[in-house]
Amino acid sequence: MTKKSIDNSVTALMEKAELQHLETTWSRSEQQKPRCAFGEQGLCCHNCYMGPCRINPKGTNRQKGVCGATAEVIVARNFARMIAGGAAAHSDHGREVAKTLLFAAQNSDAGYTIKDISKLNKVAKDFGIATEGRNKEEIALKLAEKALAAFGQQSGEIDFIKRAPEPRQALWRQHDVVPRGVDREIVEMMHRTTMGVDHDYKNIMLHGARTALADGWGGSMIATELQDILFGTPSPLRGKVNLGVLSETEVNIIVHGHEPVLSEMLVLATQDPELINLAKSQGAAGINLAGICCTANEVLLRHGYPIAGNILQQELAIATGAVEAMIVDVQCIMPSLPELCKCYHSQLVTTSKKGKIPNAKHYDFSEEEALQTAKEIVRNAILNFPNRGSIDIPKEKMDLIAGFSHEAIVYMLGGKFRGSYTPLNDNIINGRIKGVVGVVGCCNPKVTHDQAHVSLVEELIANDILVVQTGCSAIACGKAGFLTPESAHKYAGKGLAEVCQAVGMPPVLHSGSCVDNSRILMALSEMVRVGGLGKDISELPVAGAAPEWMSEKAISIGQYFVASGVFTVFGIGLPVEGSPVFCDHIYREFETIFGGKWAAEADTGKMAGMIINHINQKRENLGISKGRERVLFDMEMRRELAI
Ligand code: SF4
Ligand code: MSK
Description:
alpha/beta, Substrate Binding Domain Of Dnak, Chain:A, Domain 2, Rossmann fold, 3 domains, six-stranded parallel beta sheet, 16 strands, globular, binds iron/sulfur cluster
């Protein structure tokens, strides 16, 4: 039987859940077998009620839907709609942050402050906003208004596109894929893929690129940059990760989801002396705030608060019996949580009008009453502490360093006075570092939890490839111990280890949450700008990977990486395999259009091989190819992986 997870804390709590006949994501995943092969291959269409239609990939019958749609059209429409779904999620997140910046600018005494003034000025400049003679609130007001306008813009180009290298912008203009406005491209994607509109799979995917770019260089980048302005740009700090961060003696409050707008207020609320005293009066030693998924990444990166786990650990956190309240906002929150909470004393609290769950306690979160609401939620969690029954907190927890924003990498590599990407480029040119790979994305119960993330990253760093991470992948590798400077000596190849030891950084850099994949785009643009590695992102020895993906958001990220010129490999499989014609388009032909292409590979060793070969090819093209042999990982070495 395939192992469910390489994380012992997960295995132990899963066994507990099984003994108590509790459902988990793994038990439900088993119940879904066998899965619909049409759906898995992208061959099922239910875009109108003449269907649903399914294409038979092997036989001669059922080769078209009732309307005449072929396999490639159906696969393209489904894939494009996943891009639109992912782009919508990231971008709606960005919109909320822009609204919060607007509120903060207009209400300087209401709890939200503008923390990073230097970034405020820099981003304002990118948006063409004059900063001279204006105070920070005035600049923030103009910036928030312009950022909000970017969502509804109907023509022209979104501003952050100008951050890409010139040849990349020219390529996008040549193919007419520069996003005009964020919402506009998402809506148009939905329109084009409704019954009876765009029946040219290549044309659908060109707009798929425009929609995804509206996410990466639009909604997500707005979210990242405006969050940094409001809450501070992350810089390296120490933290801890895994379910062992839950406290036996304190009130455990877990934040879960994506938007830091509420969690930042919860951070303040849990530091309130009155609430700390209340916790003590209830028999607790204090308040322990921890996170799951990307909200966890946000509070870790800016405050050093611990991470309890990634997406597949959300139910298990409740199963410890030690969580007084789990406070959720949007995205990646399982609707199974209230059922599980019923078996323990844990409160599930929803906070977004957009994301309610029956049987959870709902608070309507608004900027106006943010701190008040946060305090009330924390108060209720504290009062729930005496209801705690027996607890099972796993012992697993790991130290890590996180907070490698694009700016922090500049500082780390070059110091305060000569900070730049020049040392990174120099080390890539001299071969100490072979290349840079963004390993990102979710976990998926279809495969052994965390294993693909950990084994891929281990092999990449052993081959002198610097890894930049976000999302649940960063959490997986944090648990495995890769996010500490000491891991350079233990796991990295000689060249990468030398660089890491010289500057005191880990070989795996945690850059943030899912929207922070936009930081990777900025880093790649900066590598091009600094020089020596070609004129466009597509010439860099870099790649992207999402080894255990599951979300539509991952598909949007993959598409904007590819459309930005990056070779991007997904694990598990992609729902496109039902159309060899479509596969050829995105796995091969895309490279001739964008200089980047998709690949799917379930075997992590092969995935690492594809990435290393790609990086070697790019190095050869750049004339910097002298290097050493690939370090090969055999099955024995892979089996040793455990958390
Ligand atoms: Fe079938 Fe075409 Fe309707 Fe899709 S759009 S369900 S393929 S008839
Ligand atoms: S939380 S989108 S499971 S990375 Fe951003 Fe993790 Fe994927 Fe959600």
